[in-house]
Amino acid sequence: MTTDSSGTRILVTGGAGFIGSHLIERLLDRGDHVTALDDLSTGNLRNLTAVIDHPNFRFVQDDVRNAGTLNVLVEQSDAVFHLAAAVGVQLIVDRPVHTIETNIHGTEVVLNIANKFRTPVLLASTSEVYGKSNQVPFKEDDDTVQGATRFSRWSYACSKAIDEFLGLAYHDQYGLPVVITRLFNTVGPRQTGQYGMVIPRFVAAALKHEPLTIFGTGTQTRCFGFVGDVTDALMSLMDTPDAFGNVFNVGATQEVTIDALADRIIELTESRSQKRYMSYEEAYGRPFDDMMRRVPDLTRTKATIGWQPTTSLDDILYAVIDHIRKHEHDA
């Protein structure tokens, strides 16, 4: 998929979400015509404030599982970025049925209709599909290790893995141009801590000099990628025909423990906050299974599109701190 002088027509499902809204800004900046589809269950129109009056943008409020709406929108589009999904550990724990139905059936609808019109699709998946694998850094073709079905958090990982199977099946059986991206802890301005996202949750607490609550021991590590870097990768992969039919890790490789992350946020905000520790069972009200490390191998992504993240963790934290300070009174 390439742009021309008149701009490509893009559909972004989950467009009022954190990543979707940043992606839309980038697409409009390069001259595309963008439609955002979102049911606003976790997305928010505030995320689209900068683009809502753009002449090349429109917003449609509806569920991605509504085949009638999708049929109309996909027919009018040259490409689909499918970002709509149930996200956030807290939401997944609280609403496991919603998680499974939204992720699997929503992707079924998107792929079926995209295939009808031969419209290229980028499926946003997640590093969660690696499960509890200890083979770090994670490579796209590594085996995955899922936890027991009694832990509802793995319903998200499994549902996104099924999305990947579906996407690759449509590519293999029907020749539909599909590219899959496994996102690793994408962060930046406009991300909310409402559903358990750790950096905005920590920053909001630090700015109020409230305790930073760490779930578990704090020795678990994560790699936090800046949303601007991630959207660059998504756009490049969709524009690269050689990427279709494959899976790509997208994220940062700078590993940090959650304990050290809390310390750094307290330092950067000059906060009087203290750290406190809470068991997973206390935090989520039920037994919880976690992965201790989550680090991507970016070899395939770099070889295919020449991409690697450029934003440091400190720069990410400064951006989030600045955003939350400016918007601390928003509802």
Model description:
With 331 residues, the chain is α/β, with parallel strands linked by helices. The protein has eleven helices and 13 strands. The chain has helices spanning 18-29, 67-75, 89-94, 96-117, 153-174, 198-207, 227-238, 258-268, 280-284, 299-305, 313-326, and strands spanning 9-13, 33-38, 57-61, 79-82, 121-126, 178-183, 186-187, 212-215, 221-223, 225-226, 246-250, 255-257, 275-278. The strands form four sheets. Strands 3-2-1-4-5-6-11 form a seven-stranded parallel beta sheet, sandwiched between helices. Strands 7-10 form a two-stranded parallel sheet. It has a two-stranded parallel ribbon with strand order 8-13. Helix 1 (18-29) crosses helix 7 (227-238), helix 6 (198-207) packs parallel to helix 8 (258-268) and helix 6 (198-207) packs across helix 11 (313-326). The longest helix has 22 residues, at 96-117.
Widest sheet, order of strands: 3-2-1-4-5-6-11
In which range does the helix fraction lie?
Answer: 25-40%
- The low-confidence parts are 1-5
Radius of gyration, in angstroms, nearest whole number: 19 Å
Quickly give the structural class. alpha/beta
Shape: globular
User: How many distinct beta strands?
Assistant: 13
Distance between the termini: 39 Å
> H/E series, N to C?
EHEEHEHHEHEEHEEEHEEHEHHH
Mean pLDDT: 92
